[in-house]
Amino acid sequence: MKKAKGRPRHIPERTCVACRRREAKRGLVRLVRTLEGQVEVDPTGRKPGRGAYLCPRLACWEEAIRRRALNRALRVVLTPEEIERLRQYARSFPAEEEAGAAGQPDPSAPE
Q1: How does DSSP assign 24-91, residue by residue?
Q2: Contact 45/32 with Cβ under 8 angstroms?
Q3: What's the rounded Cα separation, in Å, for the pair 89 and 58?
Q4: Is 6 helix (H, G, I), strand (E, B) or coil?
Q5: How many Å apart are CA 83 and CA 90, to the nearest integer?
Q6: How far is CA 103 from CA 99, 106, 108, in A?
Q7: Tell me: the pLDDT tens digits for 35-68?
Q8: What would the pLDDT profile of 77-100 be if each residue is shown by its tens digit?
Q9: HSE (side-chain half, CA atoms, 13 Å) at 109
Q10: Taking a C-beta distance cutoff of 8 angstroms, is the pair 88, 70 a contact?
Q11: Antiparallel, parallel or unpaired: β 50-54 and 29-33
């Protein structure tokens, strides 16, 4: 007997607090305010505490820090040490091409 096809599997979506783009939860980086009030990167997405999501792009991280979007989302005031730690983590992301980052097609890419 064949198994009946059901609904497609649900994929949780989250919104980047900087650029407001919606993506699959796994495609974003979670930041969490721990019970002690510290802000940490949560690579597993399972740490307890209030969470916020950012795209894995340096521009989004800088924008979130500049606009204080993380402060609002996590309901905390980031210390200069935490800001520097987040910037160091964001610098580990692969460099993105300027044309691709602006949503423009890469002119050198084959069609």
Answers
A1: EGGGSEEEEE-TTS-EEEETTS--SSEEEEE-SSHHHHHHHHHTTHHHHHHTSPPPHHHHHHHHHHHT
A2: no
A3: 9
A4: coil
A5: 10
A6: 7, 9, 15
A7: 999 999 999 999 999 999 999 999 999 999 999 9
A8: 999 999 999 999 999 998 875 434
A9: 7
A10: no
A11: antiparallel
Q: Which domains does the chain have, with CATH numbers?
A: 13-94 (3.30.1230.10)
**pTM for the model:** 0.79
**What sign does the dihedral 68-69-72-74 (CA atoms) show?**
negative
Structure-token match 């919104």, residue found:
15
Q: Is the dihedral of CA 23, 24, 28, 34 positive or negative?
A: positive
